[in-house]
Amino acid sequence: MENIRIPIGAWVDSAFDWLKENVAWFFDAVTWLFNFLIEVLTDVLVDLHPLVIILLLALIGWVLRSWQMAVGTVITMFFIMTMDQWVASMQTLALVLIAAVIAVIIAVPVGILAARNEAASTVIKPILDFMQTMPSFVYLIPAVTFFGIGVVPGLVATVIFALPPGVRFTELGIRGVDSETVEAGQSFGATPGQILRGVQLPLATPTIMAGINQVIMLALAMAVIAGMVGADGLGKNVVEAIATQNLPLGVEAGLGVVIIAVYLDRVTAALGNAKDYPRSLVAGLRRRSAKNKTAAAAA
């Protein structure tokens, strides 16, 4: 038994070599596209004056959640500036936003497919289980093999790592729509596509947004780990702090990650449940509009 060995690693290595030789054009295209997206968004976030970015983030927090969120955003983002972690934070934010958008673009259609097709769901669920049990560092290995060192393998690994909750929550949200509501749409002659767009997706939106929230959180977690393969940002600073035993740098970069994580979590949570935040600017404008309509009707 000691001499029995299945060379799975060698098989995978051979498969990777074949892919690199025969599908190199695809990896080159992905590398160009991801580099372009990252460079454009990073340049925008870094070149704009920090106060402009801070005010914009604060406005988003006020619009979606509350004025307290806006004040907290100004304070915490100014805190990042004073720690000299602003550029690294914007690089991380760019990586997270692009990775999250790509992950959602992939995850939502796959989740819809899983919700509407039992055979697809049977195949997809074990794959998601496998992806979620795989250690996060392992995702870096194939990414580096195909894309080398830099921001692109970090982005690819982040997208893959963040995918599962988006798929799961989309499937859960659509399957959770009341069957009687769907049957009512069918009784009026609505096509499956019309039911999906007009009934299932709107009712499943809070659940899907909860999934997107998890996608963003996982993307941020992986974006930090991506610093190990050369992705710029707070993750790179954390890796440098570990390598050089630089405690101040590690603490400051870690606090930057926490601040960005809390901000993104609060904002995305409000997107899916806007009615739960009466102090938001949107809620205030809605109340004012309702009062004006009531006054106009009374007159």
UniProtKB/TrEMBL annotation:
<dbReference type="GO" id="GO:0015226">
    <property type="term" value="F:carnitine transmembrane transporter activity"/>
</dbReference>
<dbReference type="GO" id="GO:0043190">
    <property type="term" value="C:ATP-binding cassette (ABC) transporter complex"/>
</dbReference>
<feature type="transmembrane region" description="Helical">
    <location>
        <begin position="53"/>
        <end position="81"/>
    </location>
</feature>
<keyword id="KW-0813">Transport</keyword>
<feature type="transmembrane region" description="Helical">
    <location>
        <begin position="93"/>
        <end position="115"/>
    </location>
</feature>
<dbReference type="Pfam" id="PF00528">
    <property type="entry name" value="BPD_transp_1"/>
</dbReference>
<feature type="transmembrane region" description="Helical">
    <location>
        <begin position="136"/>
        <end position="163"/>
    </location>
</feature>
<keyword id="KW-0472">Membrane</keyword>
<feature type="domain" description="ABC transmembrane type-1">
    <location>
        <begin position="89"/>
        <end position="268"/>
    </location>
</feature>
<keyword id="KW-1003">Cell membrane</keyword>
<keyword id="KW-0812">Transmembrane</keyword>
<comment type="similarity">
    <text>Belongs to the binding-protein-dependent transport system permease family.</text>
</comment>
<protein>
    <submittedName>
        <fullName>ABC transporter permease subunit</fullName>
    </submittedName>
</protein>
<dbReference type="GO" id="GO:0015871">
    <property type="term" value="P:choline transport"/>
</dbReference>
<feature type="transmembrane region" description="Helical">
    <location>
        <begin position="208"/>
        <end position="229"/>
    </location>
</feature>
<dbReference type="GO" id="GO:0005275">
    <property type="term" value="F:amine transmembrane transporter activity"/>
</dbReference>
<dbReference type="InterPro" id="IPR035906">
    <property type="entry name" value="MetI-like_sf"/>
</dbReference>
<dbReference type="GO" id="GO:0031460">
    <property type="term" value="P:glycine betaine transport"/>
</dbReference>
<dbReference type="InterPro" id="IPR000515">
    <property type="entry name" value="MetI-like"/>
</dbReference>
<keyword id="KW-1133">Transmembrane helix</keyword>
